[in-house]
């Protein structure tokens, strides 16, 4: 049996020169006032081999907390346990404004970056990403604002999130440094990055692909419709073969793509976070991988 190439080794964060774990940990649901419990979650991720931690300034309101709450909580942990920061590659995002909904003007980006750094208690983050594209700001203005922040030492690499192929290309045209990352929704049920050419663009430009909601917003864990049940059954078959659970098989399916996507795991339970390395175990044949794709598409490829 011939398996597709797969490496559990660290992956480059685009052309930034930074190496990160093949799986990231996301902080969309990172909430609460108990810093001890929150630190345990961070430590569980580190112990599981995770080095890339992805947050955003908008993480908070979805949990009934203020704007910036997740960043503030992480900042409090850094203040209490300063050694943790040295073991992490910190990524955050900005540009979503409640009620607007998006603002990537130079003035807003400057204050958003400064506000994130203040909440995190940091002078610099390794990766800063435009969370969603603002179609009312010229990409040249965005590029200058991000390069100014980079020149000031506030941000390391530059990334985009939820950008189309064309929007990424437009921003790159006006930048003098390479975009390092792109962050799309990608899972065995969310196939747009394959259809849209986003993964092809990532391979062409050398972008790291950070896949958000790799478990299809939990749908793959509780399948109800015929399509999802068929996909889950194929994932379960691989999970049983590798001695892992369905979530691990799902993450491994994503990572097997030659663009080497980095799934962002959002679990907030330390016991579940500890299982992250299981996703590095399954190996897929070409036929098995395509079977999942075709089941998700609901049709056979020509």
UniProtKB/TrEMBL annotation:
Gene3D superfamilies: NADP-dependent oxidoreductase domain. Coiled coil: none annotated. Residues 23-285 form the NADP-dependent oxidoreductase domain. One of its GO terms (cellular component) is cytosol. It holds the Pfam family Aldo_ket_red. It comes from the Bacteria. InterPro entries: AKR_Detox_Biosynth, NAD(P)_OxRdtase_dom_sf, NADP_OxRdtase_dom. This is Aldo/keto reductase. It comes from Sphingomonas horti. The lineage of its organism: Bacteria, Pseudomonadati, Pseudomonadota, Alphaproteobacteria, Sphingomonadales.
